[in-house]
Amino acid sequence: MNKIQVIGHKNPDTDCTLSAIIMADFLTKKWYTATAYIQWELNKETQYLLETYNISKPEIKTELDTGNEVCLVDHNEPSQAPDNLTDLNITWLIDHHKIQFESAKPLKIRIEPLCSTASILYKMYIAEWYEISSEIATMMLACIMSDSLLWKSPTTTQEDKAIASELQKIANISDLESFAMPMFEAKSDLWDMPVKDLIQYDYKNFEFGEKKIWVGTLETTNPWYGLGRKDEILIWMQDLKQEQNLDFIMLSIVDILWEINTSITLDGNDSEIISKVFQSPVENNLSNLWARLSRKKQIIPDLTEYFNSL
Ligand SMILES: [Mn+2]
User: Fold this and answer.
1) If you measure from the C-alpha of residue 23 to the centroid of ligand 1, how many angstroms do you get, rounded to a whole number?
2) SS3 state at 269
3) Which of 7, 211, 219, 259 could form a disulfide with 37 if both were Cys (CB 3.0 to 4.6 A apart)?
């Protein structure tokens, strides 16, 4: 019997955590012995979901066992993978981000531009005629709501909406808004969080040749938890930039109710990059990036183009 370890990205969110659990269930149906892992502590949205729906928390591992197979879910960027990636035997990869992955040998890979990794997993169950339990359907729906921000994110597709309505029937969830709002509120409950953790709540690192950039996002129903602590945040961003030797750092505070992205940035070079790339002036370290809700689709592509053109 093949053992397989399923793991999401660094700094776990709802989609990568629940997709790892769902994928482990899928692989179990394929007669693997599959276990889901997370790379670090969970955010408050995912914690809320585990508690509310009685889902057991995966074990934290930053390095995986080199003797067994590995399935990566919800990421394929090497900087977001487990620390010992180069020693791992990756045999599966399921994701909805752009391809950044190189492998030494063939693997089972499935990447589609759907709003969540769980949407792809849904299609994999259907293709195999595997039963989707009410628990799995609830988890899939949670991933779809989390990543699409209740359809507000431009990553949403018609297919995601069709999948969600099938899942609603299985999970017996009639109203998506009353299902999703408590998730968003749990995620936004950040008033007591130290600034150091606040800025690292949901971030991703990217590398473009020699250039290293860091893009944080705070999706919230209450932007003032972040914006009200701007001065403290700037100090920590400066430290982080030095500590990790970054070429660029930004933190987007995304108001998911009003659909406005207000980004915090350091003085000097970073501010110039923001105003150039997003054609939006920076005043008092703040820049209005309007309805850019999706980091993947509305922030990273422009930064990629800029850094690759240097
Ligand atoms: Mn995702």
Assistant:
1) 13
2) helix
3) 7
Between the CA of 296 and the centroid of ligand 1 the distance, in Å, is 10
Q: pLDDT for 264-278, tens place per residue?
A: 999 999 999 999 999
At 1 the pLDDT is 65
Give buried/exposed letters for 286-304 (b at 16+ CB in 10 A, else e). bbebeebbbbbebbbeebe
pLDDT in tens, 26-63: 999 999 999 999 999 999 999 999 999 999 999 999 99
Name the CATH superfamily housing domain 3-185. Answer: inorganic pyrophosphatase (n-terminal core) (3.90.1640.10)
Q: Report pTM.
A: 0.92
* DSSP β-bridge partners for residue 288: 262
Angle (deg, nearest 10), helices 134-148 and 14-29: 150
Measured in Å, residue 147 CA sits from the centre of ligand 1 at: 6
CATH fold of 195-308 reads Diaminopimelate Epimerase; Chain A, domain 1 (3.10.310)
- The domain locations on the chain are 3-185, 195-308
